[in-house]
Structures are given as structure tokens and as C-alpha cells.
Design brief:
Elements (H helix, E strand, L loop, with lengths): L7 E4 L6 H31 L6 H18 L2 H7 L6 E3 H34 L4 H4 L2 H27 L8 E2 L6 H7 L5 H32 L5 H29 L9 H22 L2 H20 L1
């Protein structure tokens, strides 16, 4: 751990214009509220519905959980800071935010990989699907995803602890992450940035390539299916591919480049941490008839039971 003279950082936020800031925060609050409500609705529907017991929905539950927590790691503080005169964050709180962002961000990536693997087995090896994707196997895969996410986050904290801060504490961002912190460090950060790119950047890029190759194989194999089966599988895969592109595009942009600043950095990060978790439940519910039917039946039954009581 490097010597450190800074005990807190000042987050400059998204904009310094008070009027524009209020408008932006209002939009972010709506997006965040929608993210939490929709993802919790998906979690509750999958948890209590008897028709959504397949591995795909088991993984979707954890994707929704990761999305909710990922958005919560940045949005609430951004909203609160908008109404504070001094947008300060303690050093330990900053490291905690770094840990949370990477824990749930990595979990989202790993779950997307599991969902792609599930679709590959279901479409390319349908006869072996019940054997391969057993409940115990799914639980083990999700457990490994949590472990991998935790290890990744610990690696980010180790890199952050190696940074030395001796004066400037103004972070030109709305959240703590290694890229903004690298700009404030009073030391040569070339090696740490290289490690960051080889860690976060490699995870984003390699996962994206693996996912796209897997979906190309899946789509190619659909030619051997019936028209009805091809239509249903294509609808599911299209939703997954859309989420993958929306999730990995900003991730690759943020973590696979030198420590330089671009004007769109903040907005890309906002879309990555708040926009994508907001869009994911919309994509999975609007294009999924089973999910929409299960939601309708579950909450209709709940309303009837409440009226009877």
C-alpha cells in the first residue's frame, strides 16, 4: 500500500450547470427507480411462478439481481450528491464503490455467458439439455460466477491500494473507479493501467468475443430446426444479443484504452451503469411471451387474493 495524504475525494458530478444538473438527475432518478422496480418484478415473478423453472429463467433471476445492485452502486450517491453543496466521498467509501461496481458488473458479464451457454445447449444439443443443465449444475455455475466476480473486484482494490495520492482530490466524474483515480495519483501509473486493461479490459473483450461467436454458432444451427422452433429460438437469441451489445460496448470503451479523457466518458459510464440495467428487463420482458404471461397470471392471482382478504 502506497503512502496516502488524501482522506477524501470531491466528485464533480455530471455537470456544473445547476439547471442542467436538475434535469439530468430527474431523468436518472426515473431510470434508477424503473430499473429497481422492473428487476425486482422479474425476480419475484421467476421466484414464485411455477412455469418459469427452466435454467434460462434461473440465470435471468441473477442477471436482474446483478443489474439492480450494479445500478445501486452508483445511482443513489449521484442523486444525493446533486443536492449537496460538498460532493465529498471518503477514501474508504470510494474503494467500497470501486469494489461494488466491479463485483456486480463482472457478475452481469458472467451471467450473460451462462445464459449463452444455456441457449447453446438447448438449441444445439436438445436431447442432452436436461442432463447437462441440471439444477445442481446451474447452482454451481452461478456460485463460480460470484466467486469469479469477487476475485475480480479484489484485484481492482489491490490496484487501487497501490495508488499514491498527495494533493489533488477533485475527481472529474460522478463515481469512483480506477480510471478517474489514476488521473489523480502522484506516481507513474503506466504499470497499474496496463494491469487494469489486462484485467477488466480483457474480461470485457474476451467475453464479448466468446459470446458473439457462440451466438453465431447458435444462429447457424437454427437452419436445422422447424419454422416454429426457429422463430422462438431466434426471438430469444435476438434479445440476448441486444443485451450483450448494450452491455459490452460501453464496457470495452471504458476499460480497454489508455488513461485518456474523452468528452463522452461520463455519459458512456452513465449508460453502462444506469441505462443498461434499465433496458435489460424491458428487452427480456417485451420480447418474451412466457415472461409476460407469467407476470400477468402471478400478479392477477395476487390482486384477487388481496381483494378477497
Amino acid at each position: 500500500m502506497q503512502p496516502n495524504n488524501v482522506t477524501e475525494f470531491i466528485l464533480l458530478g455530471l455537470t456544473q450547470d445547476p439547471k442542467r444538473q436538475k434535469m439530468v438527475i430527474a431523468v436518472i432518478f426515473i431510470f434508477y427507480l424503473g430499473t429497481v422496480v422492473r428487476n425486482l418484478l422479474i425476480i419475484a415473478t421467476i421466484k414464485f411462478s411455477r412455469t418459469l423453472g427452466s435454467p434460462m429463467y434461473f440465470f435471468l433471476l441473477y442477471l436482474s439481481l446483478a443489474d439492480s445492485c450494479f445500478s445501486t452502486s452508483t445511482a443513489p450517491r449521484l442523486i444525493v450528491d446533486a443536492f449537496s453543496t460538498k460532493k465529498s466521498i471518503q477514501y474508504n467509501e470510494c474503494l467500497t464503490q470501486v469494489f461494488a461496481i466491479h463485483l456486480f458488473g463482472a457478475m452481469e458479464i458472467f451471467v450473460l455467458i451462462l445464459m449463452a451457454a444455456d441457449r447453446y445447449v438447448a438449441i444445439c444439443k436438445p436431447l442432452r439439455y436436461p442432463t447437462i443443465m441440471r439444477r445442481q449444475v446451474c447452482i454451481i455455475l452461478v456460485s463460480f460466477s460470484w466467486i469469479g466476480s469477487f476475485i475480480h473486484s479484489i484485484a481492482q482494490i489491490i490496484l487501487a491500494l497501490r495508488l499514491s495520492f498527495c494533493g489533488p482530490n477533485l475527481i472529474d466524474h460522478y463515481c469512483c473507479d480506477l480510471q478517474p483515480l489514476l488521473k489523480l495519483a502522484c506516481m507513474d501509473t503506466y504499470v497499474i493501467n496496463l494491469l487494469l486493461v489486462s484485467n477488466s479490459g480483457a474480461i470485457c473483450t474476451c467475453s464479448f468475443v466468446i459470446l458473439m461467436i457462440s451466438y453465431i454458432v447458435i444462429l447457424y444451427s437454427l437452419k436445422n430446426h422447424s419454422a416454429e422452433g426457429r422463430k422462438k429460438a431466434l426471438s430469444t437469441c435476438t434479445s440476448h444479443i441486444t443485451v450483450v451489445i448494450l452491455s459490452f460496448g460501453p464496457c470495452i470503451f471504458i476499460y480497454t484504452r489508455p488513461p485518456t479523457t474523452f468528452p463522452m466518458d461520463k455519459m458512456v459510464t452513465v449508460f453502462y451503469t444506469i441505462g443498461t440495467p434499465f433496458l435489460n428487463p424491458l428487452i427480456y420482458t417485451l420480447r418474451n411471451a412466457e415472461m409476460k404471461n407469467a407476470m400477468g397470471k402471478l400478479w392477477h392471482i395476487k390482486m384477487i387474493s388481496e381483494n378477497q382478504t
